[in-house]
Amino acid sequence: MAISDEEFQAANARANALLNAFPTIESVLFDAPSSRLHLFLSSGLLLGLPLTSIEGFANASSEALAQFEISPSGLTVFFPALNSEIYVPGVLQGFFGSKNWMAAQMGRAGGAVSSQSKAAAAKANGKLGGRPRKKSDTLKLAET
Q: Which CATH superfamily is domain 5-108 in?
């Protein structure tokens, strides 16, 4: 597949715009006591990312986190032992994993939120006998 000069120049322009829009990674440090991954950026910003907030990193070993490669662009750090990478523009925009993983994290946080209306609904539901049993729960009760 041949790439035209115009396409090549357009790709370079997009890459330069991205490099100008975001700071690049200068170094990476894993802080075991706080269980955080620190990204030191060219802007002077230090990002301390909790491992539990990054998809695939929650149970990562110190050895796996010690092996990393900063991309030539400086926008990505790759962890070969985890087969995972962190993309700085994504981190700065608040994305620490795939869309499905992020949706699960947001749902977990949203489900933990309590409000007066949620408490009132739970109380009213309790008066009606609570949440209906799932079919699998009903089958288990019938078998015992």
A: Uncharacterised protein PF10387, DUF2442 (3.30.2020.40)
Check: pTM over 0.70? Answer yes or no: no
Say how far apart CA 70 and CA 76 lie, in whole Å. 6
Extents of the domains making up the chain: 5-108
Higher pLDDT, 39 or 132: 39
Q: Please say whether the beta carbons of 46 and 19 come within 8 A.
A: no
Q: What is the residue whose two structure tokens read 């200068």?
A: 26
Mean pLDDT lowest among 16-25, 42-51, 104-113, 125-134: 104-113
Q: How far apart, in Å, are the Cα atoms of 109 and each of 54, 87, 101, 119, 141?
A: 15, 23, 13, 17, 32
**What is the average per-residue pLDDT within 84-98?**
79
Q: What is the mean pLDDT of the chain?
A: 82
